[in-house]
Amino acid sequence: MLEQGIDFLSTVEPFWIYAAIFLVAYVENLFPPSPSDVLVVFGGALSVLGRAHYLGALSAAVLGSTLGFLTMYGIGYWFGERILASGKLKFIPIDALHSVEQWVRKWGYWIIVANRFLAGTRAVVSFFAGLSELNLGRTALLSFVSAAAWNSILVSAGYILGKNWRMIQWYLSAYSSVVTALIVVVLIIVVLRVLQRQASKRKGNPGA
């Protein structure tokens, strides 16, 4: 699928290159993971090869990322409580989810700034930002800043590497694996702490 997309972008007009970059950057926020980062790098490579423009590729990626973030923010804002109450996230205790929500309420704006650098969890961050009812204007601005910083790195990498842009794939994969592993460890610690707290409460109230 990825290779087909790359072959497609190699033959079409710049408008369709920007449209494809926008689409994958947008969709990634709703249905992760997606190959958006790789295609953004490829967009940078196409700009140095004369198939597209650097600012066009960057603008499409930033706009798609920001609007995708805000879409998931809206889902969290309007339907977040209903989704949590439905119990569909059974693999995570409800108390742990509420703990994450409290963290977002406390540190949310810093998390939003780092959002684009947190591979694999971007949809989660935006969902909880909406659920926590963080200020929409500030959230939109910071998600834009985060998207601009991350995608500038990707497009610039593609521009610098040119025909050798595929070299970046290994680094993106390794980066994603490390970040995802760290996030999983943190979530496991949160879940274990919540379960331990619940067990302590039950011991203190045996008749409850």
User: How many alpha or pi helices?
Assistant: 8
Structural class: mainly alpha
Please report the distance between the alpha carbons of the first and last residues.
54 Å
Domains (count)? 1
Shape: elongated
Spans of at least 5 consecutive residues whose pLDDT stays below 50 are: none
Radius of gyration: 20 Å
Q: Considering DSSP H and I runs of 4 or more, what fraction of the residues is helical?
A: over 70%
Give the ordered list of helices and strands: HHHHHHHH
**Beta-strand content bin:** under 5%
Question: How many strands in all?
Answer: 0
Largest β sheet strand count, sense and barrel closure = none
Mean pLDDT: 76
Task: List strands and helices in order, with pairings.
Blueprint: H1 2-9, H2 14-28, H3 36-48, H4 54-85, H5 94-114, H6 122-131, H7 136-161, H8 167-204
Helix pairs in contact: 2-3, 2-4, 3-4, 3-7, 4-6, 4-7, 5-6, 5-7, 5-8
Q: How does this model look, in words?
A:
The chain contains 8 helices and no strands. With 208 residues, the chain is mostly helical. 34% of the residues are buried. It has helices at residues 2-9, 14-28, 36-48, 54-85, 94-114, 122-131, 136-161, 167-204. It starts with a helix and ends with a helix. The protein is 78% helix and 0% strand.
